[in-house]
Predict the structure.
Amino acid sequence: MTGSVAGVSGLTLRYGKVTALDNVTLEIPEGRMVGLIGPDGVGKSSLLSLLAGARVIQQGKVEVLGGDMRDVAHRNRVCPRTAYMPQGLGKNLYPTLSVEENLDFFGSLFGHDMAERERRITDLLAATGMTPFRSRPASKLSGGMKQKLGLCCALIHDPDFLILDEPTTGVDPLSRRQFWDLIDRIRATRPGMSVITATAYMEEAARFDWLVAMNAGRVLATGTTSDLLSRTGADTLDAAFIALLPEEDRGEDSAVVIPPRTTDDSDIAIEAEGLTQRFGDFVAVDNVSFRIPRGEIFGFLGSNGCGKTTTMKMLTGLLEPSEGRAKLFGHEVDASDLSVRRRVGFMSQAFSLYSELTVRQNLDLHARLFDMAAEKIPARVDEMIARFDLGDVTDSLPEALPLGIRQRLSLAVAMIHAPEILILDEPTSGVDPVARNGFWRILAELSRKDGVTIFVSTHFMNEAEWCDRISLMHAGKVLVSDTAEGITKAKGCATLEDAFIAYLEEAIGETAPAPAAAPEAAPEAPAAGVTHHAQQSGFSLRRLLSYSQLESLQLQRDPIRLTMALVGSLLLMIVVGLGINMDVEDLTFAALDRDQTTTSRNYIADIAGSRYFIEQPALTSYDEIDARMRSGELALAIEIPPGFAADIAAGRDVQVGAWFDGANPSRANTVQGYVQGMHADWITRQARQLYGDKASGGSFELVTRYRYNPDVRSLNAMVPAIIPLLLLMIPAILTTLSVARERELGSIINFYVTPVTRLEFLLGKQLPYIALAMLNFFLMMAMAVTFFAVPFNGSFLGFTLSALIYVTATTALGFLVSVFIASQVAALFATAMLTMIPAVSYSGLIYPVSSLSGFGRVLGEIYPSTWFITAARGAFSKAFGMAELAGPMLAMGIAIPVIIGLAAAFLEKQAK
Amino acid sequence: MNLRNTFNLGVKELRGLWRDPVMLVLIVYSFSLSIWTSANVSPEALTNAAISIVDEDQSHLSARITSAFYPPYFVEPQMTTTAEMDRRMDQGLDTFALNIPPDFARDVLAGKNPAIQLNIDATRMSQAFTGGGYIQQIVSSEVSEYVAGYRAETALPVDLALRARYNPSLDPKWFGAISAVIRSITMLSLVLTGAALIREKEHGTVEHLLVMPVTPTEIMFSKIWSMGLVVLLGSIFSLSVVVQALMAVPVQGSVVLFLAGAVLMVFAMTGLGIFLATIAGSMPQFALLLMMALLPLQVLSGAMTPRESMPEIIQTIMLAAPNTHFIILSQGILFRGAGLDVVWPQFAALAAIGVALFWLALIRFKKFLR
């Protein structure tokens, strides 16, 4: 009996109301290949993520490599010795980065220098046969290759404990076999390494040393394959697993029996002739032909990305073939012919029903869309509910249902209009064996009883054997089409899987070097292994910079974010600079002159002559005033009463009427001011003319000095205020997104399970954004002094330095927001609001902070924008030098460690 | 096009929206609280302007002037010295500084027309103008009241009867409220349709729709009518309940005519929403695009500052944006009581832009589905 590499006791994990793990106690033996088996959603992934330290332990105890995983110090010691590959094809990879860049990133997280990384990458790629794809982006790899790359990334630091979560789901049989061979070879060179892997494929599980069968958050049984088989008396693991389930979960008789076909083969339902699909240079489907008679169950096998889905899309008319023809019932598929679609039911790979509609609403909507007569719909929906056994869940939302029931619902939806052909794209992936059997019983009935032709793709060999005929597809080509028996015999193999692998090897034999040919190249445990495990603690500039490089590479490859980062601020600066213009000029006015004397004309000419007003054709009546003001043509109308000049001369009271458009009050206020000013001015001048100097008694002169902006040009005032706002909002949004993206896409796991510290993670991500913000700063400065012609009087060096300090603080603010918000969209809006509101209201943009009180005052005094706005206005308009800028710089400088410290303190180093 | 499909799919969109709490909160907020708050924030009005006074006169008059500045327009004036005044202004502590020279009161009475200096920090444009005007008025009235105690006035008997039309008290709430409604219409018609499309893409349901006997035009129209309906109902609610009833803002013209304009506006904006969604492909990218698209639409369309004070070229470019026309027509109808005879050119322009955007979006949408 060997020792155990890890153990859990009394482990319970809940997500809200759902219990994922229910009081699990388990010892995982050391140096063995341990398999965790069970359908989706039974807690396998939860258990593995807890073992990897990626998730917070709620209740119970987890021990890995001889220590408690609740203990942070122990986790830090252990994480360089473990490796975790989460579920999902390429889940922890960076899709826009190339194979080499991905590996390089992981290598540098574990502290390898460049030469060491290069050596390891070359070795790993050679061992996995991936050398030819070194510079290909991860997103362009096939499923099998993504998983190999994921494994390479996990192995780059020679872990002692390898945790793999469904590494081969969605991968073709050959890649699967190669994957396990690779693991075997690595274990041969590093015998001490323990491996635990979850899988949904029972065939695969049979080769593991020791198994853990799980269901509904509990461990059903543990032991070797033969233990489990003998205990249950079953002959396959599938059957053994079902036998281990509690009575009520076993379902009906588990064997699926497909009766022989009776219909004749001359009636062809689906026919493909030389179907070809190209996307640019890439040939997704290459000259595929087959004929499927009515009522046949036709299976389609192949790895993810081999062209199965594309072929199905061409058959349904979703995609126009580049070459060749697809025929349904002898008619060529025409995407614009909607009548063919009524004869076809389609169930796509991803669960694609409306999660916001209930089961019944989904069925009802699809019935309507297929143009069924309204009075027949309720009966048909009920029939489907009865036939697919959905009676208990008619008013539930699909998301709340187990996967198996959702698949039945999908099938019910695809069948609602009684189609003659069913096209099913991997309908059972992730579904437990019991539900899968039930699903196939329905398919058998549809085919044999209703004569429905079924075209189905699958990864499961036992399902393939249930099909009347199967085609194996690889890299866009059909390798073979025959009955399961025929295929097995033709290759002289014992099982269908072996036969497929033989076909696949034959197909790729000439192109790729057999990876098995280089077993000696498998990464041997280097002597340095022990030392590099030791040097992980403390702050590492290398890990920090590896995150900087990762961030800049990702940004370079995302056009929308890059545009936002590079020119977003320039665009917004132009918009705001030109749009928010406070100079009210060129106002339209017209006069109704009932006096028509020199004096009245003089009054009107005063207004017409000012730079603020443009005179329009004169008015003739009150009605005209109404009409022309209503249409918005006039901002101001002046009425001079009859006898105006005579009354003035006689010293009688007289009144000039003025109406202005009050719709926009801020503009109206300005108009009012202008008119009052001009009126007063006119009166003073007239009075001087009439009464001479004695009129000036009691008068004084208010000399207004517009300081810092003597022309009172609004751009001179606006531009220095816009720069701080834009250097706040956009950099903060970008940094918020950079963290929220990792969370949403799942690559945050790399932060959880590698030695990188919070500060390295944050500062590393921050660097490229500081650089970008500074680039933006220089662009905006250039724009300000050239395009907007705003004079810059202060110290440029000092202002640049202030900007550097400011953007360091604003990028850090983004992190602080991201810590609290999970989704990218929410993070984006929250950042925009949370940064801009204080900046606009409490940073002295409009009201000086000195005139604020209470909370606003406190916030204003500490918010970095306040100080940078002071610096910007000072440097632009008030000729601030280094000495005057020192105060604001200091105030902003103090904020940086505070903000980053808070962000780091609240950033979770484990999933909740 | 099959109208029944369009209807059924639209009902599906509405049901989906009903189960999306975030969007519902956004809709309710945009048409209620957001209108209320943004109407009550009027950055143009003078509040809490910071002023300091250098009183070198120390007379009865200068004391009167000093005591005439008080909240809410001004903060309590800061008494200071000439040297200190410059420093305070440099640091941005004060927006205004009034310098009353020695012997000011005596010179005023003697008819010597003395000068009083007002320093304005013209980098705070929003307060500089209005504040300057207020200060001029306050000082003038204090001086003339003071002088009136000593001698009779000689001035021209010409009075100016200045009346603001459509908003006699120049209450900024009126304009703010209507502008906020327009802004909510713009934003939501973009966000709702764009999000509806991206949700389908992210859930993989677009493909699913396409294998059914449904055409892209039907899918697009279903999103436009359903989301447009929500926006219209929201704007009816905010206009009649929030703006008219709760905030007591009078509406001059025909609400029905305004809503007819809103229908055209929503049609155009939903087209734009779908267009942007097809470019973005994912929610976060869509949100980024929105930020870059909404702000120019908002700022340059005349909703915030009058169009005539923008450069000619911007005015011309913005004629292509639906907002510009919608703002002209809604300001005309709601404030000035304009009828269709006045605003028909805007209706025509909106309709034309709407059709063009729909057509562009449909082309993009068909490509997007491939």
User: Anything to note?
Assistant: The longest helix of chain B spans residues 172-202. Residues 250 and 337 of chain B are 11 Å apart (CA to CA). The beta strands of chain B are 51-55, 78-79, 96-100, 115-121, 158-165.
